[in-house]
Amino acid sequence: MSYRPQQVILNFHGIGTPTATVPEAEKPYWIGEGDFHKLVSDVARQAREMNLHLLLTFDDGNKSDIEIAAPLLKDLDLPGIFFPCTGRLAHAGYLDAEDLRTLAADGFGIGSHGVDHLPWARLGREELKAEIAGSKATLDQILPAPVDIAALPFGSYRQAVLGALWRAGYKQVFTSDPGFSRPGHWFQRRFSWHEGVDFDLERLTKTHSRLKSRLIGEAKKLLKSMR
Question: What is the rounded distance in angstroms from the CA atom of residue 11 to the CA atom of residue 82?
Fold first, then answer.
C-alpha cells in the first residue's frame, strides 16, 4: 500500500527585517515580508490541490507573529500555532501577554518554546524542568486554557527531553525533523524555513513519501530518543 501524507507543517521564525535584538544566529531564519506572503499563498493553493491539511507554526515569539503572520493566516483561512519563548515576552521586538491573548482569541494555538531558547538535549535535569515546566506555568497564567503543546528549540531532543515533556502534561511535541505527520499524533514533524529552502509541496511529498526516506527519518528519531 502506498503512503499518502495527510498533513504538512511549515515552520517559520521572524518575518520582515530582523531587529537589533535578534541574535545573529537566528537571522538566516527570517524571511522577507513580500516573500512570506507569496510563499504562503502559493503553498496554500498547492495544499488545496493536493488535498493536504496545511498547518503553519511560528517559533520564538517575534512581534511579526501578530503584525504580519496572523493577519495573512486569517485572510487565507489557515490554521496556525505560535510558540513563544517566555523569557522574551514583552522585550523589544517580541510578543507580550496581551498579544498572546489576542492570538488565542482569534483561534490560533499557543504553545511553549521554552524560556530562554536553549537546546534542551544539552540541559541537566533541573535546567530542563525550568525550561519545560517553567514556560508552561507562565503561559498558563496568561492564557484562559492550559498550554499542552511544545516546540523543541533548535529541534534538540533526547529521551530525557521527551520524558520531561510528557510528565509536564504536554500532549504534542513539534520537532524540526522534516517529514509529514498525522493530525493529533504526539510527535509532529515540520519543514522549517531558512535561507535557501524550497517549500514546493509536490517535491516535498515526492521526496518524503518514499519508503527509504521515511525509514531513515524514523531511525534518526529512534536514535535521538534513546540517548
Answer: 10
Identify the pLDDT of residue 1: 43
- Considering its fold, how many domains does the chain have in total? 1
User: Nearest 5°: phi and psi at 223?
Assistant: -60, -45
The model scores a pTM over 0.85: yes
Question: Phi, psi at residue 112, to the nearest 5°?
Answer: -95, 140
Residue 84 makes CB contacts below 8 A (sequence gap 6+) with 60, 61, 65, 94, 95, 100, 110, 113, 139
Q: Does 1 map to a domain?
A: no
CB of 135 closer than 8 Å to CB of 86: yes
Least confident of 44-53, 59-68, 77-86, 92-101: 44-53
Measured between its terminal Cα atoms, the distance across the chain in Å is: 33
Over residues 106-157, the pLDDT tens digits come to 999 999 999 999 999 999 999 999 999 999 999 999 999 999 999 999 988 8
Task: Look up the CATH number of the domain holding residue 48.
Answer: 3.20.20.370
C-alpha cell at 49: 490541490
